[in-house]
């Protein structure tokens, strides 16, 4: 499609957004809840003979409890391992072998974790039996068969993600492959097989090493969240605690799947060259097979109000980093649009106040930015800033300059020009999200999951448009208080390089 046509199409979407007239968009969208509780959203976009889908499951790290942290992410990996028909040479034999794997692993895990009757010889013997059983089960595996099938059908962007709030699966296909997609993706949720579970668990453990243990920013974020959330599971890492990644089993994963991967807890959006009248019967034929079950109960634990400033300092020989977070409401909070506006004013882009002050003018930071909602936004969360000091400066050097800009926001009204700039950028960001079939599908499914109505995606800009300077001051004064603050920083233990000797100095 020519660039001019793309711009025209985006403007055609943007104009109704500004006027909050959803009629033109709704004509292209069909939404239906199947008899088993699964919500399906179809958006017809016939510009090219392709379609993208996003399956969003209303489960993430926030649904985990101590002992199984990382399991939501682990199941995401398992969803690519195939089914009872895909990924195996002989499922009947493989099933029996996998049952033996679980029995031997349970024996090994009990012996390994026994704090009283721990017997190293018994543990080694049990581990040997478990690994032998796993090797036997792996003989039936056809590696990566699910992915290879969709690749041969022309799929692109095959991937998935797990966050604190949800788990998403997606890829794109030619439009004439829509029934193949419906069959394959319904099968992997209807008949999942937890093959190569412990091999994949090791892969996830290495992900943790790479993203957390080997990353200064990863280490700091984990400590920041653990300090800020003392009750709510937002304080747990999505990738899981190391001991849990060495302990949970395929049996645990099956129980997790049975509880959360039910149709009433799942949302699918399909966007592209499809006709809803033709697609819905196909979706019902395949996804309607998923057995009806009640949606899991809502999360019980609510983070209590923070009553004292908390500080975490990591002293290590790495790049110094500064991070600070303030508790704020969830995505459904009445002031959600105000939080977005505050982020735009303080830390979004090179025109933001923190960038101009710390990076451009004072040259204290190489970079400064913010997280509007950290680590998620389905539940009350954090509004956070982070900065990377320039050479010769420490993380603590950023504290006062950041707090000075925060205090300024609390005590002075934002100018109308600055506020309008933020609102314009919000509209531009939405347009970028909707530019592709994939981006649109992901947003529709996520908003349906988060708000119970995909239309909220198109209402968000108007909510930001209504934010006033008074709203910004009110929320800033409520949120940015010392007792509501958690500070995390890495103070480098590296010695500063010695200053060069003046020319002519022979010492």
What does this structure look like?
- This protein has helices at residues 3-19, 23-26, 71-78, 91-113, 120-138, 145-152, 178-190, 197-213, 216-228, 242-245, 250-260, 276-287, 336-347, 353-361, 399-411, 416-433, 437-451, 456-465, 469-479, and strands spanning 29-33, 39-44, 50-57, 156-162, 167-174, 266-272, 310-316, 321-328, 365-374, 381-389, 485-492.
- The chain is an alpha+beta fold and 507 residues long.
- The chain has 2 domains: 28-88 and 141-287, Cytochrome Bc1 Complex, Chain A, domain 1; 310-492, Cytochrome Bc1 Complex, Chain A, domain 1.
- The strands form 2 sheets. The protein has a 6-stranded mixed beta sheet, sandwiched between helices.
- The radius of gyration is 26 Å and the shape is globular.
- The N and C termini lie far apart (69 Å).
Count the domains.
Answer: 2
Distance separating the two termini: 69 Å
- What is the CATH architecture term of the largest domain? 2-Layer Sandwich
Taking all residues together, what is the mean pLDDT? 92
Q: In what range is the share of β-strand residues?
A: 15-25%
H/E element order: HHEEEHHHHEEHHHHHEHEEHHEEHHHHHE
Number of helices: 19
Which range best describes the helical content: under 10%, 10-25%, 25-40%, 40-55%, 55-70% or over 70%?
40-55%
CATH H level, superfamily name of the largest domain: Metalloenzyme, LuxS/M16 peptidase-like
CATH topology of the largest domain: Cytochrome Bc1 Complex, Chain A, domain 1
Spatial strand sequence of the major β-sheet = 1-2-6-3-5-4
Number of strands: 11
Based on CA atoms alone, the radius of gyration comes out at: 26 Å
């Amino acid at each position: 499609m020519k660039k001019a046509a793309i711009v025209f199409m985006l403007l055609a979407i943007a104009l109704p957004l500004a006027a909050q007239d959803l009629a033109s968009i709704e004509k292209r969208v069909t939404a239906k809840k199947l008899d088993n509780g699964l919500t399906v959203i179809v958006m017809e976009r016939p510009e090219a003979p392709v379609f993208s889908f996003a399956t969003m499951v209303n489960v993430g790290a926030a649904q985990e409890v101590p002992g199984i942290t990382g399991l939501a992410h682990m199941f995401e990996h398992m969803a690519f391992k195939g089914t009872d028909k895909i990924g195996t040479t002989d499922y009947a034999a493989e099933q029996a072998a996998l049952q033996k794997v679980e029995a031997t692993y349970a024996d090994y895990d009990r012996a390994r974790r026994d704090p009283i009757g721990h017997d190293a010889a018994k543990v080694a013997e049990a581990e040997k039996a478990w690994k032998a059983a796993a090797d036997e089960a792996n003989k039936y595996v056809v590696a990566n068969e699910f992915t290879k099938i969709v690749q041969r059908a022309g799929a692109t962007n095959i991937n998935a993600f797990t966050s604190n709030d949800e788990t998403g699966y997606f890829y794109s296909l030619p439009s004439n492959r829509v029934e193949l997609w419906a069959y394959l993706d319904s099968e992997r949720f209807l008949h999942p097989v937890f093959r190569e579970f412990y091999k994949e668990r090791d892969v996830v453990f290495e992900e943790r090493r790479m993203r957390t243990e080997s990353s200064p920013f990863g280490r700091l974020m984990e400590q920041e969240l653990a300090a800020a959330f003392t009750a709510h599971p937002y304080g747990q890492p999505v990738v899981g605690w190391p001991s849990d990644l060495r302990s949970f089993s395929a049996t645990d994963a099956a129980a997790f799947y049975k509880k959360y991967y039910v149709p009433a807890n799942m949302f699918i959006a399909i966007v592209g060259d499809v006709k809803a009248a033709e697609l819905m019967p196909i979706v019902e034929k395949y996804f309607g097979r998923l057995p009806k079950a009640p949606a899991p109960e809502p999360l019980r634990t609510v983070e209590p109000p923070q009553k004292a400033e908390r500080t975490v300092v990591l002293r290590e020989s790495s790049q110094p980093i500064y991070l600070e977070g303030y508790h704020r409401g969830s995505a459904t909070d009445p002031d959600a649009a105000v939080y977005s506006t505050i982020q735009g004013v303080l830390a979004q882009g090179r025109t933001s106040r923190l960038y101009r002050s710390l990076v451009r003018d004072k040259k204290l930071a190489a970079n400064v930015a913010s997280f509007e909602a950290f680590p998620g936004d389905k539940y009350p969360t954090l509004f956070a800033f982070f900065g990377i000091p320039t050479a010769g400066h420490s993380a603590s050097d950023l504290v006062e300059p950041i707090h000075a800009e925060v205090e300024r926001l609390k005590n002075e009204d934002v100018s109308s020009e600055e506020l309008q700039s933020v609102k314009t950028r919000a509209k531009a960001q939405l347009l970028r999200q909707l530019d592709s079939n994939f981006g649109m599908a992901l947003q529709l499914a996520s908003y349906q999951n988060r708000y119970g109505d995909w239309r909220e995606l198109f209402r968000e800009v108007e909510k930001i448009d209504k934010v006033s300077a008074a709203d910004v001051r009110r929320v800033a004064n409520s949120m940015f208080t010392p007792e509501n603050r958690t500070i995390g920083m890495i103070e480098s233990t590296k010695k500063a390089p010695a200053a060069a000797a003046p020319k002519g100095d022979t010492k």
